[in-house]
Amino acid sequence: GNDLMFDEAYCEQGRNFANKIWNAFRLVKGWEVDENLENPNQQAIAWFENRFSEALAEIEANFKQYRLSEALMATYKLVWDDFCAWYLEMVKPAYQHPIDAETRAVTVKYFEEILKLLHPFMPFLTEELYHDEIFGERTEMDCCIVADYPTIGETNEQFLKEAELIKGLVSEIRNVRNTRQISPKDALPLSIKVNSGLVYENWTNVIFKLANVSEVELVNDKIAGSASFMVGNDEFFIVLNENVDLDAEKERLTKELEYLKGFLKSVDAKLSNERFVQNAKPEIIANERNKKADAESKIAIITESLADLEG
Q: What is the maximum alpha-carbon separation in the chain?
């Protein structure tokens, strides 16, 4: 069966999740609106709309198969990771600054849809919040339990993939800060060597806001003496006011190269297995071939970077 043994850790996890929802609600409700401000968050809004539809399709598929635990986990990740950790961070105004009316209205709408999605799992908290004035006036019978369930909209898979790369970029910049003990308040210059078709100009507002970047420059060559990393097939460079440890950089790149070679070997083994190729779905085979091409591209770039360091 699908029974779970009682564990106090589950209670703590539920409590923390409820606190997360409540704190997100307090954040959105506390925003002051300036009707004169334009909306700078179109990209973030479009991303969450796509991500919500993608997650909703996954949740409904789990419900149809009676996979309740998977449906709950997909809902949990949508709320905690996508809505609270990423979307709200993308759109929230600076401390003690107002927000534009359009962003607030769209965010309140998303929050209401999330409450409907959460209601089967957390009926009391969601019903309480659903009746708050931030969502407009409610009649006595206008309750979350009988509200129309969200419907799946269209999703742009390419757009969602681009967003994942941008999130990976933000995480890597934060990692550079942590490893070199750079304050989050210090803005960093970012240079990008684009090897893919991603248009970074569309995402600069998100990058500036989440990664505290002072400038974004597109370059054609590697920048020597900078902190460098890769996200997807694109290369990124941050020029720091310090000397980069070349030996440590070589060690990092060598480890990454060894990992990619091992990963490529496992993918090649899978694709050379006739039984796998004959029985697997076409989309799975296509995904494995994409993994192979991606790994080969990264290996070539890292090998070139190591050669430059040796030179």
A: 75
CA 161, 167, 173, 175 torsion-angle sign: negative
CA distances to 30, 167, 182 from 171, in Å: 28, 6, 14
Q: Which residues of the chain are in CATH 1.10.730.10 domains? A: 8-146
Pick among 3.40.50.12280, 2.40.10.10, 3.30.70.660, 1.10.730.10: CATH of 8-146: 1.10.730.10
- To the nearest 10°, the Cα dihedral for 166, 170, 175, 181? 160
Residue written as tokens 């359009």? 102
CB burial of 31-51 (b: ≥16 within 10 Å; e: otherwise) equals beeeeeeebbbebbbebbbbb
DSSP 228: E
Structural contact between residues 48 and 82, judged by C-beta atoms closer than 8 angstroms: yes
> Lowest mean pLDDT: which of 132-136, 264-268, 298-302?
298-302
What CA–CA distance (Å, rounded) separates 134 from 144? 14
Q: Tens of pLDDT along 81-103?
A: 999 999 999 999 999 999 999 99
Does position 225 have pLDDT exceeding 80, yes or no?
A: no
Residues 44 and 206: beta-carbon distance below 8 Å: yes
**Which pTM value belongs to this model?**
0.81
User: For residue 40, what are the contacts with CB-CB under 8 A and spacing of at least 6?
Assistant: 100, 205
pLDDT digits (tens, 9 = 90+) for 274-287: 888 888 888 888 88
Tokens of 221: 């060559």
